[in-house]
Specification:
about 160 residues, alpha+beta, Jelly Rolls, 4-stranded antiparallel beta sheet, 8 strands, about 20% helix, about 35% strand, globular
Length: about 160
């Protein structure tokens, strides 16, 4: 029985392509700072729905006492180069007292970015001056890849 289970799982692993492709973008608060997206991190994405998750946090200030003691946020700003459309991804709850508290606000949240055509997306922080910024937000992009129909056909043919 164990051998049969192993053979079935091994066959599925060979016959089915990867179900998702991941990439992570680091949005460093100093390196990607500016008045617009000129210093952002550019990523080329295909057409379709992309699922984003966020970790980490950044601050626009060099001390935690700024902004009434709430100096941290987990926020990813994105601009689709082809259209100029911009998006802000966050929990929408504002600035928090620590990077841990800010990151906890988006833990478990999944955001969608839908592109009509393949193209470049730029992620950045928007703030000026940049010298007092600190921290990094990480955006993990999950691009689901559908299981090819021939994979199912291959599996069925093996059991006829």
């Amino acid at each position: 029985m164990q051998k049969l289970c192993f053979i079935i799982l091994f066959t599925i692993a060979l016959a089915c392509p990867a179900l998702a492709q991941y990439q992570t973008v680091a949005i460093n608060a100093q390196a990607t700072c500016g008045n617009a997206y000129e210093n952002g991190v550019a990523v080329n994405l295909g057409a379709g729905i992309h699922y984003l998750t966020l970790t980490g946090a950044f601050s626009n200030w060099n001390v935690n006492t700024e902004n009434g003691g709430n100096a941290w946020i987990t926020l990813a700003r994105a601009r689709v180069s082809a259209t100029g459309d911009t998006y802000n991804y966050s929990a929408g709850t504002g600035w928090k007292a620590s990077p841990t508290a800010a990151a906890a606000e988006v833990a478990g949240m999944v955001f969608e970015l839908t592109l009509a055509t393949a193209g470049q997306v730029v992620f950045a922080t928007i703030d000026n001056p940049c010298g007092d910024n600190r921290g990094t937000v990480y955006v993990t992009i999950d691009d689901p890849v559908g299981v090819e129909s021939r994979s199912w056909g291959t599996l069925k043919a093996m059991h006829r």
